[in-house]
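Morning run. Coffee first, then this:
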Amino acid sequence: MCGGVRPLGYISGPKPGSAIIDKKTAPIIKEIFTLCLDGNRPYEIANKMNLKYGKVPPRKLRNKKLKGGGKSFSENYIRTVILNPFYCGYVYATLANPNSLQVEYQLYNGKHKGIITVEEWQKAVNLLKSYKTTGHNYPQIRDTGKYLLKGVLRCDCKSFMSAASTGKVDDNGEKYRYY
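And here it is:
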């Protein structure tokens, strides 16, 4: 690995550029993939992870300092984890946006051990790609922590209800937000 902080589930190994599985946070990654392979969509996984763990744990650096973490699990975070081939033992050179479903990259065998198998990763990525929908006009809700019932409430027509937030200005000119 060419520098940077190791992804959640890994810590820096004894040699520069190496990574070893973190026994404390690797089960979180395994659980994300298990939930995905069980048919849960990213927002459902994020909701379950927020209920169970509360926040994304920080990652441990070689010097034992902590970095990142502290935010709620989000739909985008779950997508990023699922799309990351590092978790099955690969490293990659990105040719496009790594958070896109149309990511293009060249995979290389890493020297680290994968938390999941290559087959599990490929199945999870294929499931994620199958959820992609075509254009719509309603706003996307990315912060699952604010909308606890996202993906749960349905209207009479069996469609999921959506939530949105907007800002308004009251009579005194003060801004406020409502959901």
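The longest strand covers residues 90-94. Good start to the day.
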